[in-house]
Amino acid sequence: MKYRITRTKVPNVLRFMAFFKTVIAKLATEATSNRCNPFITFVLGGPGSGKGTQCVKIAETFRFAHLSAGDLLREEMSSNSENGTMIHDIIKDGKIVPSEITVNLLRKAIHSSGNHKFLIDGFPRNEENRIAFERIVGVEPDIVLFFDCPEEEMVKRVLNRNQGRVDDNIDTIKKRLEVFKKLNLPVIDYYSAKGKVCKINAVGTVNEVFEKVKPVLAALRYCEGRILDIHESSSSSSSSAAAAVDAATRYHNRTKHSLTRGATPGGPRGLDWANQPNPFLPSSPPSPPPPPLSPEPHDDSPPLPLRLPPPFLRRSPFSRLHLPPPLRLPLPLRLEVHRPLHLVPPRQPVQRQPSPHRVPPPFPTSSPLATTTLLSSSFLFLFFLGPLLTQGPLPRAPRLDISAGPPPPPISARRLLLHPLAGGLEVRRACLSILQP
Ligand SMILES: Nc1ncnc2c1ncn2[C@@H]1O[C@H](COP(=O)(O)OP(=O)(O)O)[C@@H](O)[C@H]1O
Ligand SMILES: Nc1ccn([C@@H]2O[C@H](COP(=O)(O)OP(=O)(O)O)[C@@H](O)[C@H]2O)c(=O)n1
User: Which of 90, 176, 251, 434 is exposed most, by the fewest CB atoms within 10 A?
Assistant: First the structure.
């Protein structure tokens, strides 16, 4: 009998230890890959929408590596490689080069770059591109910038481009526009459904368009719990500051002061030093007040196509990660429920006074622990709100406004609208204005 117990218990213990080891190994791998994952921004838009032009400015200002799929293909085409003629013919015909070729060129460029933040310009052009990238490079984009431009403007810009490209002629442009609508727009829709797309109206001068892009990039500082060293550097004098930031970041990542590997398990993002009293506080000058928020000029602008998976409808924990990157700033969140009481003739919903809930920092990160524990007040709030919104006895769609930033911004200008029937959140363009650094 004794023998039997030993026989059955020992394998159980071993099995448990093996299981435990696997779990630890998996967690360690996840933690490492989270630290090492490059930050990928796909930049999409029709031919001539200004992707390349804006990428150059973003790369310069925010120190991203700019990889243009089209440029890589053109280089390959002129390098007399075995695929050169094939690439030339496909580009001239306005079609899409087989994904394996483009993705391998991108993969090599990513690996040989010293950078960890990438703008991938003109990619993915179709579903096949997207799937091949995920398979070969093994990552998804963190954000997708979509430059939205009317066709006539794109045609005008391409015909004026004057770079001697084999595809910048009216016949090929027509084909490229067709390919864009048929193959590229579905990819943009795919990422919109994942809440990853930031749509930028590409009409205006180069600088005007860049002014719309800047806040989106500035907001990425806190994206996905990774502290991205995104700092604006408009002049060469700031490159020394940028180098200092790089050095400090490298130091923190190497030491126990790592931003992602803290010694205090319970600390937010594992920041071991974040919970310590600031030794410099008594002598440090008071921090300056936050800059005033600029008023939103066009509140009636069409909503951004940012669609978020509605976590509260599934009753899973809600965190700032469920918001689009622009709203993941370390600012207090303000949640307001607007619930119509009942319908009265002539079928006008009566609005209750909004009930505000303020959610102060600290801020959640991508770690599951932080996601479930931080922002717990908003989680609880949304947890209870979820059933109300979906199954409650409310006669009309209730609305949840989420805004961020001190001081509480004008509600009309900064809001996310909840559409329970559509099952998602729509972000108004206005919310981007709060991100102005
Ligand atoms: N906002 C803009 N207004 C006017 N011309 C622009 C603007 N942005 C880019 N261009 C010009 O339009 C042409 C196409 O821009 P480019 O950045 O090459 O587009 P894409 O990379 O999307 O094909 C270029 O000649 C560029 O100088
Ligand atoms: N992912 C990609 C990107 C570009 N290309 C090819 O390269 C051409 C030029 O792409 P591009 O991004 O440089 O230029 P635009 O179309 O944006 O002006 C496209 O029309 C395609 O023929 C491709 O096949 N696959």
Answer: 251
* Residue keyed to tokens 């500082």: 221
The CA 146 to ligand 1 mean position distance, Å, reads: 14
**Can you name the residues that pair with 401 across neighbouring β-strands?**
336
Ligand nearest to the CA of 145: 1
Q: Dump pLDDT digits (tens) for 339-372.
A: 433 333 333 444 444 444 444 443 333 332 222 2
In ligand 2, the atom with minimum distance to the C-alpha of 48 is 18
The predicted pLDDT at position 221 comes to: 63
Angle CA 228–230–233, to nearest 5: 160
In a domain, 197, yes or no: yes
* pLDDT beneath 70, residues of the chain: 1-36, 221-437
How many domains are there within the chain? 2
How remote is the CA of residue 253 from the centroid of ligand 1, in Å?
39
Q: Which-ligand-closest: CA of 49? A: 1
Express each pLDDT in 208-252 by its tens digit. 999 999 988 887 765 544 556 666 654 433 444 445 445 555 554
Q: Are 359 and 333 in contact (CB under 8 A)?
A: yes
Verify that 188 and 78 share a domain, yes or no.
Answer: yes
Single out the residue in 185, 203, 225 at which a domain terminates.
Answer: 225
What is the helix, strand, coil percentage profile of the chain, to 5?
A: 45, 15, 40
Token couple for 414: 């900064």
32 token code pair: 């490492």
Tokens read off for 408: 């509480």
